[in-house]
Design goal:
Elements (H helix, E strand, L loop, with lengths): L1 H16 L2 H21 L6 H17 L1 H14 L3 E5 L2 H14 L4 E4 L3 H5 L2 H7 L3 E4 L2 H9 L15 H12 L7 H18 L2 E4 L3 E3 L4 E6 L3 H7 L3 E7 L3 E2 L5 H13 L6 E5 L13 E7 L3 H5 L15 H5 L1 H6 L10 H12 L1 H4 L1 H4 L6 H5 L6 H14 L5 H14 L2 H5 L3 H16 L13 H18 L1
Parallel strand pairs: 1-10, 2-3, 2-4, 4-7, 5-8, 7-10
Antiparallel strand pairs: 5-6, 6-9
Length: 468
């Protein structure tokens, strides 16, 4: 299994790395994002202080996770909602299935949510004969294309406007030259009746607010509001790490999420939903259920150092900064959570032996760490993942022997100097040529070593001094 997952990753990443047209699309969108983020940062008098405060609050919540989750549960149930604790994806799907059957829903409206991709909600409901309708524009496009989101914020990050127009021309007969406004208007028209007649709306959560028992939701399109206001039932699926202590904390989290997520000073819609419709209210669901999902998050929490990654607020900034993500895109990872943050948490959530390669697919340049709004030290955590995989013996015989030989060579100056550059290049090509990739040129050992160049330089300086 591990070998197959790794092989697929290597194959897909090699294919994407050679697709310069696709990279041009990614770079273009990321460059626009970077410009917007720079402008949005101006709203902070002291950005570093805001990031430090957010990091402290998230880490404190993780340290008191059991206590804060129980506080959320108590307060949410006081508001009339119902809490379900789901140990894994099967538990969450089982609860959703029961609700769907109870209300005899033929379809559900679903908002953009990484956690719903994680539990493969659409596939499971499809097997029950229940249609899942994506209501976010990016997710709607991906659903029509038969693809998974490639980015945790911008689901269609890898697609050009021309490709989207061609897709809607083939699927719905829109003009092949349709603009983004025309496509948006078409999607809006298609979804309007679906919202009005839906029995069930399913969303994720950006934040779970403990002291008020509220679900915090952030969006720019209004589809989440529509998915929660009209249906009879609102189901929320949220990872247990989403909880924050107080409603007062949102004054730092919401601006940071908007700034680093989409380069805005604030999102178009920030909503707090604290339970089902109350007496005297004219809209909102009759029933609201929050499913608190573990799904191996406690495996990440059990790591003394890597647990820090659970502070992530899913802004996607580290993906946009990562040279690896910008080169291979999101689909190559083969996982819900991609980029540096995905490379840290996925090996613990899905199995270190199967997914350790993601932690090695990094330049460890620190770019992800530098842009994280909650100051997660991503490059350090990736190194700890690598170290843990080696400690647990998760490496091949070739890797073990290779590191043994390199250690011996690098600790012995005389051995390093033996042999010609041609011989060394031949040995490197035989040993590592295949791993380096067909489309990459393996670096060559220079004719003169650093030691030789240094000695020649030193002798030249001595000769000059003697002449004087």
């Amino acid at each position: 299994m591990a070998n197959e997952v790794y092989k697929k990753f290597m194959s897909e990443s090699a294919k994407m790395a050679a697709d310069t047209a696709r990279q041009e699309i990614l770079y273009g969108k990321i460059n626009r994002y970077n410009a917007a983020v720079k402008q949005a940062k101006s709203q902070f008098v002291n950005l570093d202080l805001a990031r430090n405060r957010a990091a402290y609050l998230k880490n404190k919540a993780l340290g008191d996770l059991e206590k804060v989750l129980v506080e959320f549960e108590v307060n949410f149930e006081k508001n009339g909602g119902r809490i379900v604790w789901a140990q894994d994806a099967a538990d969450a799907i089982g609860e959703i299935t029961e609700i769907v059957k109870k209300y005899e829903a033929g379809y559900v409206v679903k908002s953009k949510s990484s956690v719903l991709e994680e539990i493969e909600l659409s596939r499971h409901l499809s097997e029950l004969g229940v249609e899942t309708i994506e209501t976010g524009m990016g997710e709607f496009i991906m659903q029509q294309a038969g693809e998974q989101p490639s980015h945790m914020v911008n689901s269609a990050m890898h697609k050009s406007g021309e490709e989207v127009a061609a897709l809607f021309n083939a699927k719905f007969g829109l003009p092949a030259t349709a603009t983004s406004d025309q496509i948006t208007a078409y999607i809006r028209k298609q979804l309007r009746n679906k919202f009005f007649n839906a029995k069930i709306g399913i969303t994720g959560a950006n934040f779970l607010v403990a002291d008020s028992g509220s679900v915090g939701l952030t969006e720019n399109e209004g589809n989440i509001l529509m998915s929660t206001a009209f249906p009879e039932v609102h189901i929320v699926v949220a990872g247990i790490e989403k909880v924050i202590p107080s409603i007062r904390n949102l004054d730092v989290f919401w601006p940071l999420l908007a700034t680093y997520g989409s380069g805005q000073k604030t999102a178009v819609y920030n909503s707090l939903i604290s339970g089902p419709r109350q007496e005297g209210e004219t809209d909102g669901p009759k029933e609201m259920v929050v499913i608190l999902l573990d799904n191996n998050r406690t495996a990440v929490l059990a790591q003394t150092i890597q647990r820090r990654a659970l502070a992530c607020i899913r802004c996607g900034a580290c993906l946009n900064a990562s040279p690896v993500y910008r080169t291979i895109g999101g689909h190559a990872y083969g996982t819900t959570y991609t980029g540096p943050i995905g490379a840290v948490i996925t090996p613990w959530m899905k199995g270190l032996n199967e997914y350790k390669h993601l932690s090695f697919a990094s330049t460890i340049c620190g770019s992800g760490t530098s842009v994280c709004p909650v100051k997660i030290n991503l490059h350090d955590l990736l190194l700890h993942n690598r170290n843990d995989s080696v400690k647990q013996g998760m490496y091949s015989t070739f890797d073990g022997f290779s590191m043994f030989v390199w250690k011996k060579l690098l600790l012995n100056r005389n051995w390093m100097d033996k042999g010609s550059a041609g011989f060394k290049n031949m040995m490197l090509k035989k040993a590592y040529g295949g791993l380096w990739g067909k489309k990459r040129i393996l670096p060559e050992v220079a004719e003169d070593s650093f030691k030789q160049l240094w000695e020649e330089r030193r002798e030249g300086i001595i000769r000059k001094k003697k002449k004087k």
